[in-house]
Amino acid sequence: MTDASTLMQFLFALRSKGVTDARVLTAMEKVDRAAFIRGLFAERAYEDMPLPIPCGQTISQPSVVGLMTQALRAGPRDTVLEIGTGSGYQAAVLSHVARRVYTVDRHKRLVTEAREVFDQLGLTNITAFTADGSHGLPDQAPFDRILVTAAAEDPPGPLLAQLKVGGVMVLPVGQSDAVQSLIRVTRDERGFEYDELRPVRFVPLIEGLGRDG
Ligand code: SAH
């Protein structure tokens, strides 16, 4: 873990960017982001910036992780599906605000490495799979909450179908080379409601497994 003043600055930066939910801030205080970054960049784990991880992917900026977690409004009884495990950091934050987290990535290497960190940190309520998340996770569906951390042009149909009535999905939509919109989809008995939250930039959601997996 990092020293107290670095952690205070980290939490202060999160609050100043709009992460105000106490449960989210507590979760982010508990999860050591440096554990999810291998090599030299680990030194920069407490700066509010995205950083490179293997397979040409990125660990999202902490304030974006916080804002997305906050927008998801997950509670302690909820089962969450995350698409795009990446480093595993977002899943680890979710594991402190929800009951159970399923996370999938199309790169086997990222899933294997993330699992190692979940074990090391004792996060036993996360299950990670190598899979194409654009199909969701039919065997474990439906979900109370779905968080997508790669950008699709539109919300994938299978993910909408796997969201419970009363459920919430947060995802970036738009083309990968442009600024995307973070949207929140809420499902009720009558259908789906869409809210646009803020501009974001994510790597694209790509169909099929990665070449290593
Ligand atoms: N949430 C991650 C960051 C995700 S980066 C973290 O906290 O570190 C986006 C991830 O989405 C990448 O790892 C990429 O491999 C993955 N991805 C892209 N398309 C996918 C798909 N169809 N299914 C599953 N994962 C996908």
UniProtKB/TrEMBL annotation:
Question: Does the record's keyword annotation contain Transcription?
Answer: no
Query: What reaction(s) does this enzyme catalyze?
Result: [protein]-L-isoaspartate + S-adenosyl-L-methionine = [protein]-L-isoaspartate alpha-methyl ester + S-adenosyl-L-homocysteine
Q: Which UniProt keywords apply?
A: Cytoplasm, Methyltransferase, S-adenosyl-L-methionine, Transferase
Extract one GO BP annotation from the record. Answer: protein repair
Q: Does the keyword Transferase apply?
A: yes
Residue numbers annotated as active site = 60
Gene Ontology terms, MF aspect: protein-L-isoaspartate (D-aspartate) O-methyltransferase activity
Location in the cell reads:
Cytoplasm
One Pfam family name from the record?
PCMT
Q: Which Gene3D superfamilies match?
A: Vaccinia Virus protein VP39 (3.40.50.150)
Tell me which domain of life the UniProt entry assigns to the organism this sequence originates from.
Bacteria
One GO cellular component assignment for this chain's record is: cytoplasm
The protein's matches in HAMAP family, at most eight in alphabetical order, are given as: PIMT (MF_00090)
Spell out the family assignment given in the record's similarity comment.
Answer: Belongs to the methyltransferase superfamily. L-isoaspartyl/D-aspartyl protein methyltransferase family.
Its biological purpose: Catalyzes the methyl esterification of L-isoaspartyl residues in peptides and proteins that result from spontaneous decomposition of normal L-aspartyl and L-asparaginyl residues. It plays a role in the repair and/or degradation of damaged proteins.
Q: What is this protein called?
A: Protein-L-isoaspartate O-methyltransferase
